Amino acid sequence: MIIGYLRVSTSKQHLANQQDEIRRFAESRNLNVDTWVTEVVSGRKQEKDRRLGSLLRRMKRGDTLIVTEISRLSRTLTDVMSIMGKCLRKGIILYTTKEKYSFDDSINSKVLCFAFGLVAEIERNLISMRTREALALRRANGMVLGRRHGSYTKLNVLIEHRQAIIEMLNADRTIGEICRQFDLSRDTFAKFRRMYPSVQEAVKCKAERQAERIGKKSAADIETTPRES
After folding, report:
1. Global pTM exceeds 0.70
2. Does 138 fall in a domain?
3. Mean pLDDT, 10 residues at a time, over the chain (229 residues)?
């Protein structure tokens, strides 16, 4: 069975050019494409999560897979190597029309796959090294690494609703009520309050209004209390 595999990243791209190129390549080798497999998906998505993965699982020894270029299989070299290795193990012949690669059971194909595998291993090591160096630099600059605590997300919620919270305080809503509404602790609210002078001012004004009301109530209670004769 001979299969032509076509892939584009977005629906705005066209598959016709790839199909025409594969058809011309097949005719030049007296081959006839039995099945066309097409999909619109990013090449960065792993092969096992694409139609290509199920296609390779169904293909058998002696089957042929034709693509226009190696990047149609994947955008990452490590994934390309995984796909090529799978083809070699299963005895699937792989052709690329642009680069003129032929991967079969010949010694030349095995040497080429070894070269690709060596490059992929170097790429993995370089990525790992760059990651370690970047993390070390961030630590040296005093940056805290790792996942932020849960209060960070809840603090962001308060920041996004800052104006609404100020209005709630101006309407004499208690801090406890605000914390319950946003499902967070008083400690998180205290961090948020220290970040914004406008929130501190709203809390201060609310406390002054409350103290004023308490003072007026106390004075009223004194005035209405009957004096002893």
Report:
1. no
2. no
3. 89 82 93 92 78 91 92 82 84 90 77 68 66 70 58 77 89 88 88 90 88 70 54
How is 168-179 classified by DSSP, letter by letter? HHHTT--HHHHH
10 and 62 belong to one structural domain: yes
Distances in Å between the Cα of 20 and the Cα atoms of 7, 52, 153, 172, 186 are: 13, 20, 52, 72, 66
DSSP string computed for 153-212:
HHHHHHHHTHHHHHHHHHTT--HHHHHHHHT--HHHHHHHHHH-HHHHHHHHHHHHHHHH
From 82, 109, 125, the end of a domain falls on 125
Q: What's the helix, strand, coil split of the chain in %, to 5?
A: 60, 10, 30
133 within some domain: no
Provide the residue range defining the domain that includes 169. Answer: 150-224
CATH number at residue 71: 3.40.50.1390
Distance, C-alpha 140 to centroid of its chain: 27
